[in-house]
Design goal:
Oligomer: heterodimer
CATH topology of the largest domain in chain B: BirA Bifunctional Protein, domain 2
Strand order of the largest sheet of chain B: 1-4-5-9-8-7-6
CATH class of the largest domain in chain B: Alpha Beta
Helix content of chain B: 25-40%
Largest sheet of chain A: 7 strands, mixed
Bound molecules: zinc ion
Number of strands of chain B: 9
CATH architecture of the largest domain in chain B: 2-Layer Sandwich
Chain lengths: ~800, ~350
């Protein structure tokens, strides 16, 4: 909502500066987004005082003056005005400034005398038509003061972010009411010059009537609960007077012609949209408020042909739609310079219906904006009367017949019971009954006398948002001032809700990733996707982002590529987020996942190691184990050889495959290193409804003890003994398989098994590699003898030879 | 010194490892010579010590040990000789170690700045007795709108430009559905916060993203009031921002009544007005309000008996302010040079 400071001042008197008004509206109603000085083009004009003046040596109508403009020195200024006086103050524009209208002032010589700027007339400043000399200022402000501070020239536009619940604030009258509530004053629409023609009283009817020569029929009272109109004959369409043009300009609205300007003026002043039809162009001299017919079309005022449907309400003449109700008029019956007689519509259209129509037509207007939120249905007669007077005042003409008012089912003002105890309970502090009554009355509520702590509150018709007692409590709180309530921390009871296991798990996994040296990325879940594999959005923002990711690596890989494009070679990213799988019924299957990507140097390059190694698959495997352990919370983690395409390992937790570690194919420059990706599911996120609407399904809120993941093992009291063994392992035999046999054959005294090295090449038969392991044995009670260990080694070697055909390396 | 074969073998292994490492690090012939004396000479702790132990071993173990001893001795002799040759060939550089040379470092990990802010918020509310709840991002329309008192065909819906799923449901536009899910699952008293991602059909610009983090909070019990809301949130602001002035002003959310917005004094101009705060001296931090009775009723609660308050804020924007990030898109680029600024 654009409000004009001056317009508000015409409705309610106050002493606030625009800044104070902004703070007041913000504190009591809605936030003010911005204050716009409308004469910013005068910002560089200052107060100048003429210190000396003398005739120009080479001219008989010019003066050479010396002006104090707040600078350190006096400026020479040539002036042609006959009324220049020494000691007087004038608006002064220094060389270098641009005047309204675009005239850029430069330092120049006028008939040999230097002029450093200009003393300005009202007309030169765009403040009027008076060019009878320069504008003498009646001010005590010192020279150099901005001109706009010295005069009240220039309105301020107050841009208010009106919340959807406050349609009453979409008008100057509504905002003025709030100001009046703060000052204790009264908001009253001002009398306007010449707007005093008498308007006959409205003739109330249910669904049919006439005004002037127009017959009006209301066939759709659901879409249009109230329809009023007035016939004005013999208007002269033409430009609006300056005051009207200025008012509209102040709120950012362009002047069109005097009649249309009056309707716009009323929209901004009273919040009542109106529409003027050229009565001569209404076929059959009829207005019919009805549903659009199937296939019916209309060319709206913006020149676009629009298809209507029977869900929409239209204003039609005898044959065709002439306006889309509450949204926009049609071009056929538009008021033009040739218009003589007008029919002025002042109606109330159903908010939800206007909203649906506006959305279907994708056509939002100032009118639809207000109708959607709900206008003051009882304000219609006043608004109609004022608009008719204004039209006659600015466009001439005469009112023909009594205005018609079709209002089949008057809406009674709702009445809400209010208990002062409820106010105190919700707000946490008592508000006295007289104060409640005063506060509510200040913005138009009628409060009955309190009896036993209860009163009945009648809601003003311009406040459709107030329907329950909590709405009244909000009114009380905001009018008293939210800041007037205490902010004292009071005792509270501990909640029953245990921490979400998912939140705990995510935090633990995140910590593990950060400790592993990874950087947490944040990516959008939208992908190019595919119909059968991905979940599609119904209204995507772009076709290449029409689906939701099914894997985190899908989007994290794009982040890695972004980094490569920034020439970052060493990419170490992780992300924790949701992935979505299509589901046959209802919502997608949602999983909380973790993903990581590593590529480039394994650690920051160091001067001792000019060619630092890159991350390889063994780093990826280790990282996968580390992240999986964090996810597993103590359950067994296994990495299963996959060797399928890019997948290197499946990651299993407690026997379930929960993710994988893989090579990643990226869109990467040639210098990029090999990339590895890891992805794991933390948990399924249920989107099942907890219980049907209005019901609950309470869970027991017991806090179960967390079993510990850790346990202490006593230190051994005997020494361990190790033996190394090098084996020739066929290339196609998995080392993990060999390890399993070693463990089985070693018996329970084997404490650890560590791979020492792998070697291929000289001395090793084709198709084999030599792998060396260290077997460490320990007996819990005594020192193992060398012979015993050697015996075990021999058994291991025999078993391997028998089971797997693996022999000991002899060279 | 004990005389088990294992001990001797472990000792020899260690001697070998330590001396090979010392040789690799040696930067001068002198250093190599020192190693030679320590290892092959008569000094204590050298190979010589081990020779003496042979006789102490059981005769059966002696050949094994002897073989190992000789292997190690030969290896060290060769290593000393070759390192000696290497260093005498290159220019003798007896320079002392330059301790100003850079350290060998590890990659440092980092949480995303938005996570950092979320964690700070979480920690403060945990102190105030809140636990953490979560919910799905793909939601039913009822949890996102109906249960939260959004009337159909109401302009309030314009505040939530929604991304719908083709097969029904939507991407939640706020974390408030978690309020309903929690209220349906647990009895009052309830004090929870609910962090998570939310979605709007907003195109990217410097301050908007189609997905962003939100953190929701809710307290429900008998006698919970607007004063509690103000107190808790002002307390939060003082701890998150350091002692600060707060301002509560009217706002509108369908699911709260009264609704409010909490501002804190602009930290850039200290409340005097600047471009950041649009000359107002205040910066908006969160939306909040007393829970609308219809919301409590939607979750099966007795709205006569219980009252509640709730709030929601955007850690993404708070991270912009906290860390001085000029454009929200930077948060989503996940550029390493950006993320590394938050390394621990
Ligand atoms: Zn500021």
């Amino acid at each position: 909502m654009n409000a004009s400071y001056e317009w508000l001042r015409a409705i309610v008197s106050f002493d606030y500066t625009p800044e104070q008004l902004r703070d007041l509206i913000t504190a009591r109603c809605c936030p003010v987004d911005e204050l716009v000085r409308l004469r910013a083009d005068l910002a560089s004009v200052v107060v100048g005082q003429v210190i000396e003046a003398g005739p120009h040596p080479d001219s008989d109508h010019l003066w050479v003056t010396r002006v104090d403009a707040g600078k350190n020195e006096l400026l020479d200024v040539v002036c042609g005005a006959p009324n220049v006086k020494v000691g007087a103050k004038y608006p002064f524009a220094a060389a270098g400034t641009t005047l309204p209208g675009g005239l850029k002032l430069e330092k120049r010589k006028i008939r040999g005398a230097t002029s450093n700027g200009m003393l300005c007339s009202a007309r030169e400043l765009g403040l009027g038509t008076d060019h009878e000399g320069i504008l003498e200022l009646d001010t005590t402000l010192p020279p150099g003061t901005p001109f706009l501070e010295a005069v009240s020239a220039g309105d301020t536009r107050i841009i208010i972010d009106v919340t959807p619940n406050r349609p009453d604030l979409l008008s100057h009258l509504g905002i003025a009411r709030e100001i009046a509530a703060a000052t204790g004053g009264r908001a009253e629409l001002p009398a306007l010059d010449g707007a005093n023609v008498s308007v006959p009283a409205l003739v109330r009817a249910t669904n049919e009537g006439a005004s002037g020569g127009i017959r009006v029929k209301l066939e759709d009272p659901e879409g249009c609960p109230r329809y009023a109109g007035i016939f004005v004959r013999a208007v002269a369409i033409g430009p609006s007077p300056a005051w009207l043009v200025e008012r509209l300009a102040a709120v950012g609205s362009r002047s069109i012609n005097n009649v249309v300007d009056v309707t716009n003026y009323m929209l901004h002043e009273a919040g009542q949209p109106m529409h003027a039809f050229d009565a001569a162009l209404l076929g059959g001299s009829a207005i019919v408020v009805r549903r659009a017919r199937a296939g019916e079309t209309i060319r709206t005022l913006d020149g676009v042909d629009r298809k209507l449907d029977p869900s929409m309400t239209v204003i039609a003449d005898a044959s065709s739609a002439q306006a889309v109700a509450g949204v926009m008029g049609g071009s056929t019956s538009e008021v033009s310079d040739a218009t003589r007689d007008i029919f002025l519509e002042v109606a109330y259209f159903d908010p939800a219906s206007v909203r649906r129509t506006r959305r279907a037509l994708q056509l939002g207007t100032d009118a639809s904006y207000r109708y959607e939120r709900g206008i003051d249905i009882e304000g219609i007669p006043r608004a109609l009367e004022r608009a008719a007077r204004l039209i006659v005042a600015v466009a001439g003409g005469r009112i023909d017949g009594a205005p018609i008012d079709l209002y089949p089912v008057p809406k009674p003002a709702p009445s809400i019971p209010l208990a002062s105890a409820h106010v105190a309970r919700l707000l946490g502090e008592p508000v006295s009954e007289p104060e409640i009554a005063t506060l509510l009355a200040s913005v138009g509520f009628t409060v009955s006398a309190f009896a036993n702590g209860r009163a009945s509150v009648t809601v003003p018709t311009w406040r459709p948002d107030v329907t329950r007692n909590v709405d009244l409590i909000e009114e009380i709180a905001r009018l008293r001032g939210y800041d007037s309530f205490s902010a004292e921390l009071r005792p509270f009871r501990r909640g029953t809700v245990p921490d979400s296991p998912l939140a705990i798990l995510s935090a633990r996994v995140r910590e593990a990733c950060v400790r592993a040296g990874l950087l947490e990325a944040l990516s959008m879940p939208f992908v190019r996707g595919g119909e059968s594999t991905h979940v599609r959005l119904a209204n995507p923002m772009a076709e290449h982002e029409a689906y939701l990711r099914r894997d985190l690596l899908e989007t994290l890989a794009r982040r890695a590529e972004h980094n490569l494009a920034q020439r970052h070679r060493d990419v170490r990213l992780f992300e924790i987020g949701s992935a979505f799988q299509p589901s046959l019924s209802g919502l997608p299957r949602e999983e909380m996942r973790v993903a990581a990507i590593v590529m480039g140097h394994r650690h920051p390059p160091h001067w001792t190691e000019p060619a630092a190694p890159d991350f390889d698959e063994w780093d990826a495997k280790g990282l996968a184990e580390l992240i999986a352990s964090a996810v597993a919370s103590g359950a067994a983690v296994e990495l299963l050889d996959a060797g399928e395409g890019d997948v290197l390992w499946w990651i299993a937790i407690a026997g379930d495959v929960r993710g994988s570690a893989r090579r990643l194919a990226l869109d990467a420059p040639v210098w990029a290193s090999a990339a590895f990706g890891i992805e794991l599911t933390l948990a399924h996120v249920s989107s099942e409804p907890v219980a049907p609407p209005g019901e609950s399904k309470l869970q027991s809120a017991s806090h179960a003890a967390q079993p510990s993941r850790f346990g202490f093992r006593p230190f051994p009291s005997t020494p361990s003994t190790f033996v190394d063994v090098a084996l020739l392992v066929p290339n196609d035999l998995a080392a993990s398989r060999v390890e399993r046999s070693i463990r089985d054959a070693s018996g329970e005294l084997l404490e650890s098994l560590a791979m020492l090295s792998e070697y291929r090449g000289t001395g090793i038969p084709e198709g084999f590699r030599s792998i060396a392991w260290r077997l460490t044995f320990r007996h819990p009670e005594r020192t193992l003898r060398d012979k015993e260990v050697a015996g075990r080694r021999d058994k291991v070697v025999r078993t391997l030879e028998g089971e797997l055909g693996v022999r000991q390396r002899t060279t | 010194m004990s005389t088990s074969l294992d001990d001797l073998r472990t000792g020899l292994e260690e001697l070998r490892r330590a001396n090979l490492e010392a040789l690799a690090k040696a930067r001068s012939v002198d250093e190599v010579e020192q190693t030679r004396i320590a290892t092959l000479g008569r000094a204590r702790g050298g190979l010589n010590d081990y020779k003496a132990h042979i006789t102490a071993l059981p005769p059966a173990d002696r050949p094994a040990f002897g073989a190992l001893f000789n292997t190690v001795k030969q290896e060290l002799e060769q290593a000393i000789a070759s390192r000696h040759a290497e260093l005498s060939a290159s220019a003798p550089a007896p320079a002392a170690v330059d301790l100003s040379m850079p350290a060998r470092r590890q990659w440092r990990g980092a949480r995303h700045p938005v996570t950092i802010v979320l964690a700070e918020i979480e920690a403060i509310f945990r102190d105030l007795g809140f636990t953490v709840a979560t919910g799905p991002e793909a939601e039913h329309e009822w949890y996102n709108f109906g249960a939260l008192n959004f009337p159909p065909d109401h302009p309030a819906m314009d505040m939530h430009d929604t991304l719908y799923l083709e097969r029904g449901g939507l991407l939640r536009t706020h974390t408030s559905p978690v309020q309903i899910r929690t209220l349906q699952s647990y009895p009052p008293p309830i004090r929870i916060i609910a962090p998570g991602n939310v979605f709007r059909r907003d195109f990217f610009d410097a301050s908007h993203a189609p997905m962003f983090a939100q953190i929701e909070g809710m307290a429900v019990d008998e006698g919970v009031s607007f004063v509690d809301l103000k107190a808790t949130l002002a307390n939060f602001a003082n701890r998150f921002f350091g002692e600060t002035k707060t301002r509560f002003r009217p706002s509108f959310f369908p699911f709260t009544e009264p609704s409010a917005e909490m501002d804190v004094a602009c930290r850039i101009c200290n409340g005097t007005g600047c471009a950041t705060c649009k000359q107002t001296g205040w910066v908006e931090i969160l939306g909040c309000g007393m829970m609308h009775p219809s919301v409590l009723e939607a979750a099966g609660l007795d709205a006569q008996r219980y009252t509640g308050w709730a709030f929601g804020m955007g850690p993404g924007r708070m991270a912009l302010q906290r860390f001085g990030i000029p454009d929200i898109r930077i948060e989503y680029d996940s550029d390493i040079s950006f993320l590394e600024q938050f390394a621990q």
